[in-house]
From TrEMBL:
Keyword Cell wall biogenesis/degradation: no
Cellular component annotations (GO), alphabetically ordered: Cul4A-RING E3 ubiquitin ligase complex
Organism annotation: Oncorhynchus mykiss (Rainbow trout)
This protein's name: Cullin-4A
Span of domain Cullin family profile: 406-634
InterPro entries: Cullin, Cullin-like_AB, Cullin_CS, Cullin_homology, Cullin_homology_sf, Cullin_N, Cullin_neddylation_domain, Cullin_repeat-like_dom_sf
Family affiliation: Belongs to the cullin family.
GO BP annotation list: cellular response to UV; developmental process; DNA repair; proteasome-mediated ubiquitin-dependent protein catabolic process; protein ubiquitination; regulation of protein metabolic process; rhythmic process; ribosome biogenesis
Cross-referenced PANTHER family: CULLIN
Domain of life per record: Eukaryota
Keyword Isomerase listed: no
Amino acid sequence: MAEDIRQDKKANFSALTEHNNNGVTKISGLASNKTGASKKLVIKNFKDRPKLADNYTEDTWLKLRDAVGAIQNSTSIKYNLEELYQAVENLCSYKVSPTLYKQLRQVCEDHVQAQIHQFREYPLHCSLDSLSFLKRMNRCWQDHCRQTIMIRSIFLFLDRTYVLQNSLLPSIWDTGLELFRNHIVSDGAVQKRTVDGILEQIERERNGETVDRSLLRSLLGMLSDLQVYKESFEERFLMETDRLYAAEGQRLMQERDVPEYLHHVARRLEEENDRVISYLDQSTQKPLISNVEKQLLGEHMTAILQKGLSILLDGNRVMELALLYQLFSKVKGGLPTLLQHWRDYIKSFGGEIVGTPEKDKDMVQDLLDFKDKMDNVAQGCFNRNESFINAMKEAFEAFINNRPNKPAELIAKYVDCKLRAGNKEATEEEMERILDKIMIIFRFIHGKDVFEAFYKKDLAKRLLVGKSASVDAEKSMLSKLKHECGAAFTSKLEGMFKDMELSKDVMIQFKQYTQNQSEPSQLELTVNILTMGYWPSYTPMEVHLPPEMVKLQEVFKLFYLGKHSGRKLQWQPTLGHAVLKTEFKEGKKELQVSLFQTLVLLMFNEGEEFSVEEIKSATGIEEGELRRTLQSLACGKARVLNKSPRGKDIEDGDRFNFNNDFRHKLFRIKINQIQMKETVEEQVSTTERVFQDRQYQIDAAVVRIMKMRKTLGHNLLVSELYNQLKFPVKPGDLKKRIESLIDRDYMERDKESPNQYHYVA
């Protein structure tokens, strides 16, 4: 019965494994009863592992030990390497791995221990120097590495199975490193001599000698691989570096000038970085470079700047300044220190430009040149650092305002010089560039009202005497001032231009009017009608005009007031000019002269010679003005009058006659007009007018504040005034204006608290 069941099972198994032709398994539901048609599947156990010969392990180890010994002694190996590898694999397969590992380690350890003797017995006083010692050490290390690699290649199976599975065991390579470290490099005397030798070689290289860099790279790589680099070498190396560069910094700061010293520091840093790339460990770079920067720069920052910054800036040493910024940016506190000295230099140098009255003539041009120079340094050398640019602006603002009012006055005169006709040095683009630069300096000035007063006076002269080089340039400057200071600042200046344009229209109408007169005048009159509030105030001067001129003035007055009733005309002879037709022996000439010069010259139609007193009586010109006028006619380049006695100055007894022999290559001759040259009196009166205006502005500001606040303490009132006023003012001046307003009953003191003020409605 049991046999039949077994046969059924076989039949069923056979049916389950039957395949059709196309490879698909065919599942049959019927069991075949024919035993002959079934296939048998026999499953057998593995054969028993063959037993090793009794002495196989020992013999194999001896063979392996001989191979290891041959590698260590650099002799030929008797056996095939593949055979040795197979032998190791066989031993590992029979669980001999622990014993094999221990035996291998012991053989290697014995060999390394034997190596130490060549270094311990290395005589310190022998003829071989430290370099030979380093070479021997390097040779030993290289041999050890090569031997370890070969030994590992034979015992690779052991390394990748047994050792890998036991995390506590070091690999064969790590074992080799550990043995070399423990028995050779960790030996005190050997380690000291090795590190001493390496440091000596580095010091020689720093002193300019050539050393074997590959040797140093190999030995320092050895210390790094053996994980003793930091404690055995790096600490001592950094100490030696500190000592060397501390001494070098002190010595060279005394011996060399700053540009040379900076180049030396840059070279030293480059050398040390190169050292890191060539043979030092990468981890040494940061502390090493930090030490060099500290000893050569950090310890001498102030000394470098005090000794050399002004020299570099004065000489415009752009390359060295860029290097200085680059080096100081690497040192802690370097840039703030440089920034402070840079600011001090600008204040000092600029203070000399502004504070030396003898240099006033060139002050503005010197300021523009200085600003350009400092801009170039900030942009090109200081990496456009915002802090340095802001410090420069602060320094300029500080030193320019150390001397109140004068820079503002001179800037206005400089603009006048550039915008005046005859200035052919600049094209439109260059003029625009010059005006932009002037505006930069203008921004630094606190007393902008002083600039406005002088600018307005000079602009008036340019417009009235027809000396403006370009209307476009004038309007461009006006636009820049408006953008900078607001419409209120330029409203009067714009009004001046408007007056000039309206005057042109009026003159076209006046010419038509005179042509329709029954007796047209032979003289041609051009009048500029000026709105009194827009223009500078001129002192009225009564002069004796020829009857023809007086008559023509009356005709114009009648014409103008007929069109504009209710207006009042006041003539300003100081601003007049004329063209005179003159006849000399050489021929006819035209003289372009001022009205005062015209009155003097017309007298010589009536007589041949006159004294100063006679001319003064006949013309009515004020004495100082008359002397300047006579000087321009008799002592200048175009001497149309003769003076006797000769001399540059006009004295009371001088007499004048017409110079009939006058010669000149031009037909129309311009005799320098005195009103184009500012007198000291004009300058003083302009300044006084500015101060007077300031007093009115202070009074108005005080009343405005008190009217709004009703009651206010002195300190708060002064603080409010400083916020509102746009010009610099001293506390003492404010106090005087407050006292003046109290006297005029605009405000009163509190009876109990004198520092408290009340507004009086």
